[in-house]
Amino acid sequence: MPSESQIPIASQAASRRFATRLALFYGAIFGLLGAYLPFFPVWLKAVGIEASWIGIITAVPAVTRFTVLPFVTGLAERRQSLRNAIIITAFATALGLTVVGTQHQAVLVFVAFAATCCLWTPMAPLTDAYALRGVSHYGLNYGPLRLWGSAAFVVGALACGLLVDVIAPEHLIWVIAAVAGLSALASLGLRPIDGLKKADVMQRGAGALLRDPGFLAIILASALIQGSHAAYYIFASIVWKQSGLGGLTIAGLWSLGVLAEIVLFALSPRFTRPYAVLVVIGALSAVARWLITAQEPPVAVLSVVQLAHGLSFGLTQVGTMGLLVRNVPFHVMARGQGYLAACSGIVASSASILSGVVFARYGQGVYYLMAAMALSGAVVMWLARHRLADQPHSAASGG
User: Fold this and answer.
1) Is the pLDDT of residue 294 over 80?
2) Which of 77, 53, 109 is nearest to 203 (CA)?
3) Looking at the domain assignment, is residue 1 inside a domain?
4) How far apart are CA 280 and CA 315, in angstroms?
5) Model pTM?
6) At residue 276, does pLDDT exceed 60?
7) In a domain, 6, yes or no
8) For residue 384, what are the domain limits?
9) Sorting pLDDT into bands at 50, 70 and 90, what band is 5?
10) I want to staple 147 with a disulfide (CB 3.0 to 4.6 A). Which of 32, 249, 263, 265 is the partner?
11) For residues 322 and 143, is the Cβ–Cβ distance under 8 A?
12) 381, 221 contact by CB (below 8 A)
């Protein structure tokens, strides 16, 4: 990677503009997740949705990842319009969540939320594809850009944590919808990547990704490890609230994990271990995290365990993105992100639905299932590590 002094001043300025605006948008979309993930299930419960339906409804985003999402990312890639696709999905998400807030019956919430997620779930992989193109084009690092999303997640979670003690839980959806509106406005600040030629994003070889064992190992391992967070995302806030914890304490527990994630992203340019090894470490950290969480530890212990999120999620994300940049051709990066999201959707939706069933019967015992998933991801990546190390691919090369 060239040093900043070797990059023309005009390119340096373009690089800074790209990084600043992307960081702002990352902040907006993850601020939305910070409001949504901890408190959307709380809102569902507040409006009378049963636990089994909560599991089904919260599985919708994962289902759309392997049904609608690959078509959206593929269409955006064919039309070479990642930026426009991001803007459209951002505004559609804000509108859709507003409609969801007007519904209180399980079936109607399900239908409205499903329609919203058809365009919401493609937004993150489209943004990551846009980011990785910029990372390669401008010689940037992914982690320091992505950390602003994690920081905004903390702000969103804390803001909702404060509000949940002030406003009725059935009004939380309007906070979530409002943050989605801010995300839509932030998307307008994204700009085309300077100097990116049409030839750089020509469509060839996209189908070959699904015939590449190395690529399949990347997306499967990532899906299993990240999917092992399903029970945590769905039921953690509900369990903590039922145990008597206040909204701010709940938000604080979520924020501890994300703060660890932010530190990890900031330090990621200094990591020297192979990306595959980073993913394995992230997976094993998830195994330990879920085994301890299953014991229903007190808040003091839980606070320490939450710091493992920096490894279980953050390190897995850094390793996965590094492997994609190294192994996926530049011109099919959006398609690669779509396949990753689709695989993650299959695993996460299954995990979400199964978690609802298992949690209803065994409570915190559901985390043993999550630990098994993370361990499976570690095994997949460990077995593929030599293939991924022996067959590097420059994403910037386009071929």
Assistant:
1) yes
2) 77
3) no
4) 9
5) 0.74
6) yes
7) no
8) 12-390
9) very low
10) 265
11) no
12) yes
Pairwise CA distance, residues 50 & 66, whole Å: 26
- Tokens matching residue 258: 């994300």
**Residue 397: inside a domain, yes or no?**
no
H-type helices in the chain, by residue range?
9-46, 51-58, 60-67, 69-78, 82-100, 106-120, 123-138, 142-164, 172-187, 213-227, 230-242, 247-267, 275-293, 299-306, 309, 316-327, 333-362, 366-390
Query: Angle at the Cα of 44 (from 42 to 45), degrees rounded to 5?
Result: 65
Q: What is the pLDDT of residues 73-102, one digit of tens each?
A: 888 877 767 889 999 999 999 999 999 999
Tell me the pLDDT of the chain averaged across its residues.
84
Contact 234, 296 (CB under 8 A): no
Tally of domains within the chain: 1
Residue 382: CATH number of its domain: 1.20.1250.20
Neighbours of 199 (CB within 10 A): 8
Can you tell me the distance from the alpha carbon of 342 to that of 322, in angstroms, rounded to the nearest whole number?
A: 19
Residue 363 included in any domain:
yes
- Phi-psi region at 254: left, alpha or beta (left = phi > 0; alpha = psi -120 to 50): alpha
Distance CA 114, CA 349 (A): 13
- Could you say which DSSP state residue 359 is in? H
Greater confidence, 157 or 141?
A: 141
> CB–CB of 129/82 below 8 Å?
yes
What type of residue is 345?
A: G
